[in-house]
Design brief:
Ferritin, elongated, binds MU-OXO-diiron
């Protein structure tokens, strides 16, 4: 059984991951509305990955005999000033998620919950990857700022991203 404190924190993380999915789906819709289908695709794939993250916590709680308690998901923003702005907000959000994961690791350590501590290592690695991906796209967007041609090329690149289920 998972302790009360750990369980509550894991349930909170399901909400964080579902909100992440909601945020990126909203960004996907916005990119689609301004004609950037490649960017929209990238964000839609990201939204699916976030749903997968939520499900990892969900499945883990149930596997440990804990109770899943879903909470209200807040509404995300609906528009951004530019593609660069959207990706800066994405990176900011991922840094927040990294903090959440680190906090969960701390709780697992304090509660001496080995199993949860081990499960969380996947997320620790995942956050390094997610922040690096966002930083790479931000660097490209800064390089091409103001260039329609540059945006068009990057849009074509981001159109290539495909959803791959992340297995443990
Ligand atoms: Fe689920 Fe983007 O972290």
């Amino acid at each position: 059984m998972i302790g009360e404190r750990m369980l509550e924190a894991l349930n909170r993380q399901i909400n964080e991951e579902l909100y992440s999915s909601y945020l990126y789906l909203s960004m996907s819709a916005w990119f689609e509305s301004i004609g950037l289908k490649g960017f929209a695709n990238w964000m839609k794939v990201q939204a699916r990955e976030e749903l997968g993250h939520a499900m990892k916590f969900y499945d883990y709680i149930l596997a440990r005999g804990g109770k899943v308690q879903l909470q209200e998901i807040k509404a995300p923003p609906h528009e951004w000033n530019s593609p660069l702005h959207a990706f800066e907000e994405t990176l900011k959000h991922e840094k927040h998620i990294t903090e959440c994961i680190n906090k969960l690791v701390e709780i697992a350590e304090e509660e001496k919950d080995r199993a949860t501590f081990n499960m969380l290592q996947w997320f620790v690695d995942e956050q390094v990857e997610e922040e690096a991906n966002d930083e790479e796209i931000i660097t490209k967007l800064r390089m091409i700022e103001g260039s329609k041609n540059g945006i068009f090329m990057l849009d074509r690149e981001l159109a290539q991203r495909k959803y791959v289920e992340e297995v443990k």
